[in-house]
């Protein structure tokens, strides 16, 4: 894949051209196949992205030539694998604007990363971590704030933290479109707030959170801000320092990388003070039968055998995205989102949740087809070779607030074409007639 168009230096970033997307698609073997006799239109990248040959080859090359345990051996392969592992950390650190690679912790996935923070705070609240961890203590009277739109991965760990410490879990309510505003959040941030955990981009509505306003208000009362960046890191520029958050989490498989690896970013001083919750080998300095001393970050959070080949592959995914340019990735997906919304708006009996047409959103749309269950919608589209998601998307409270049990969700990425979107809209327009739902209405 070679992107030849220059990346504009001003604010008017052009979406990818059809030729550029075609060259990108050629890097993805899985997209070259037919599904149910139709060319594959993969519109489920919000759940998991496909992988280009560059990423597949990078992991394969590592496993064929350099694979060994990192940080443990003095032989040549151990040195090569350690260098590759730490070079990958540095690559990801640069990609997200970290101050130093040691602010990047490898985790099993984003859920694991968020649990690392939540259970670290829980351990600190139980007296673990010594005096430097006192800043993390929570108890009765303290509050943890989330939103009603959170993915379960950024809700359930905080429920558990509140239950274990006696703190109160509060949430910012959403409106009838599933969205919330900065004013809504600020109304719930008080001098009792100790943690604010929000998604940068909603995996259901595509709404982009007002992070700057939330961070400013949270820090004004001394609260930590934890950012779920699963739907932003793959799709738009992510600068954790510019955002001024305290922790951020995202996963590899949503950004052209492998399963089995996620990223926790945290401010160095916070990571070095946060007690670990997963313990064992690789994260210690001294162990006696009575006591253990832990290494500083990032190693203190990387107990056990590390995801070495996965880190190598994720770094290659990052370099792939950097060659395209994240501003152009964002422009491409926002263009496709508006094309999708405009098309769906012409189809009777379709309700799209989230920001209306014309308002910037990530490249996804969750929708309801009147009279047809979301799973039937997905199966009909699959018969046309179009892959979408159906269900509650690990966001049951949001769906419950909207009076829905499930939605269908189409999500785009760098390899999605305008033709994919148009095929999708055309197929959606056929669904109610196919299931006889037009007569029912």
TrEMBL record:
A Pfam family recorded for this sequence: Aminotran_5
SUPFAM superfamilies found in the cross-reference section: PLP-dependent transferases (SSF53383)
Reaction(s) catalysed (UniProt annotation): (sulfur carrier)-H + L-cysteine = (sulfur carrier)-SH + L-alanine
Superkingdom: Bacteria
Keywords, comma-separated and alphabetical: Lyase, Pyridoxal phosphate, Transferase
EC number: 2.8.1.7
Keyword Transferase attributed: yes
Residue intervals of the Aminotransferase class V domain: 42-424
InterPro entries: Aminotrans_V_dom (IPR000192), Aminotrans_V_PyrdxlP_BS (IPR020578), Cys_dSase_SufS (IPR010970), PyrdxlP-dep_Trfase (IPR015424), PyrdxlP-dep_Trfase_major (IPR015421), PyrdxlP-dep_Trfase_small (IPR015422)
GO molecular function, one term: selenocysteine lyase activity
Cofactor(s) this protein cannot do without: pyridoxal 5'-phosphate
Chain's role: Catalyzes the removal of elemental sulfur and selenium atoms from L-cysteine, L-cystine, L-selenocysteine, and L-selenocystine to produce L-alanine.
Family: Belongs to the class-V pyridoxal-phosphate-dependent aminotransferase family. Csd subfamily.
UniProt name for this protein: Cysteine desulfurase
């Amino acid at each position: 894949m070679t992107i030849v168009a220059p990346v504009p230096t001003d604010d008017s970033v052009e979406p990818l051209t059809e030729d550029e997307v075609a060259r990108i698609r050629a890097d993805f073997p899985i997209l070259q196949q037919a599904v149910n006799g139709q060319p594959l239109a993969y519109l489920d990248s919000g759940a998991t992205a496909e992988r280009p040959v560059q990423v597949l080859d990078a992991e394969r090359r590592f496993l064929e030539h350099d694979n060994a345990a990192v940080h443990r051996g003095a032989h040549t392969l151990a040195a090569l694998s350690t260098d590759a592992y730490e070079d990958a950390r540095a690559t990801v650190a640069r990609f997200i604007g970290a101050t130093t690679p040691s602010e990047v912790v490898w985790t099993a996935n984003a859920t694991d990363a968020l649990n690392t923070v939540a259970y670290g705070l829980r351990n600190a609240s139980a007296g673990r971590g010594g005096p430097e961890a006192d800043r993390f203590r929570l108890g009765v009277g303290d509050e943890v704030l989330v939103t009603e739109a959170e993915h379960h991965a950024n809700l359930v760990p905080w429920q558990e933290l509140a239950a274990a410490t006696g703190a109160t879990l509060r949430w910012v309510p959403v409106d009838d479109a599933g969205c919330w505003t900065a004013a809504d959040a600020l109304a719930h941030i008080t001098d009792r707030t100790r943690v604010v955990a929000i998604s940068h981009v909603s995996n259901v509505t595509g709404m982009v959170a007002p992070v700057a306003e939330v961070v400013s208000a949270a820090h004004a009362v001394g609260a930590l801000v934890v950012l779920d960046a699963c739907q932003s890191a793959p799709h738009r520029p992510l600068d954790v320092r510019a955002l001024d958050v305290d922790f951020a989490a995202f996963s590899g498989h949503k950004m052209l990388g492998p399963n089995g690896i996620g990223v926790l970013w945290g401010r160095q001083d916070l990571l070095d003070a946060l007690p670990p919750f997963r313990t064992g080998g690789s994260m210690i300095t001294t162990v006696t039968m009575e006591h253990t001393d832990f290494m500083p970050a990032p190693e203190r959070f990387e107990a056990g055998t590390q995801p070495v080949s996965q880190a190598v592959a994720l770094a290659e995914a990052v370099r792939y995205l950097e060659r395209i340019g994240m501003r152009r990735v964002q422009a491409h997906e926002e263009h496709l989102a508006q094309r999708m919304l405009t098309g769906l708006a012409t189809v009777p009996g379709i309700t799209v949740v989230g920001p209306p047409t014309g308002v910037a959103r990530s490249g996804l749309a969750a929708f309801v087809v009147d009279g047809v269950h979301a799973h039937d919608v997905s199966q009909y589209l699959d018969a046309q070779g179009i892959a979408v998601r159906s269900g509650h998307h690990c966001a049951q409270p949001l769906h419950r607030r909207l009076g829905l049990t499930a939605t269908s969700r189409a999500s785009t990425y760098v390899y999605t074409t305008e033709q994919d979107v148009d095929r999708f809209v055309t197929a959606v327009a056929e669904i109610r007639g196919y299931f006889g739902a037009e007569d029912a209405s």
